[in-house]
Design goal:
Layout: H1 2-10, H2 13-60, H3 65-92, H4 99-141, H5 145-164
């Protein structure tokens, strides 16, 4: 920036104006980028919060599996949309995507994928747990030796999940 200023001082009036314009443009771009980043951050935070909420709900089992799944999908979609928006804005402003930006985008996408995977895994686990619990409840009505084994399995599952967290 200092260099730019020096240049401005050195140049003639016409050139000065031109440079000023350039500077302004750069500043504007920077501002835009900052805003976008802020938006993204906010979105991320929101997502995280939602995820946490989901997890809590799952633990209490008040929320149905399908609902949770739907919510997750929606969130993912939202994130994707945000990404698209970012891209569009970048293109609109004719901002040449720097390597850094590209890297950032890639990272984001990767994160998204990872999240998806994690969610799927969690879902699997949860479904397993629910099924087991259901079986136990059904079995407990009939007082047999089988019930004990089933309960043991459920407890082990629970332990597994807790350890995973």
């Amino acid at each position: 920036m200092m260099m730019m200023m020096l240049l401005l001082v050195m140049m003639t009036m016409t050139m000065k104006t031109m440079l000023l314009m350039m500077l302004l443009m750069i500043l504007l771009m920077m501002l835009l980028m900052m805003l976008l980043m802020m938006m993204m951050m906010m979105m991320m935070m929101m997502m995280m919060m939602m995820m946490m909420m989901m997890m809590m709900m799952m633990m209490t089992m008040t929320m149905t599996m399908t609902m949770a799944m739907m919510m997750m999908m929606m969130m993912m979609m939202m994130m994707m949309m945000m990404m698209m928006m970012m891209m569009m804005i970048m293109i609109m402003t004719m901002m040449t995507m720097t390597m850094m930006m590209m890297m950032m985008m890639m990272m984001m996408m990767m994160m998204m994928l990872m999240m998806m995977m994690m969610m799927m895994m969690m879902m699997m686990m949860m479904t397993m747990m629910t099924t087991t619990t259901k079986t136990t409840t059904k079995a407990t009505t009939k007082t047999t030796r089988k019930t004990t084994t089933k309960t043991k399995t459920t407890t082990t599952m629970m332990m597994m999940i807790t350890t995973m967290r």
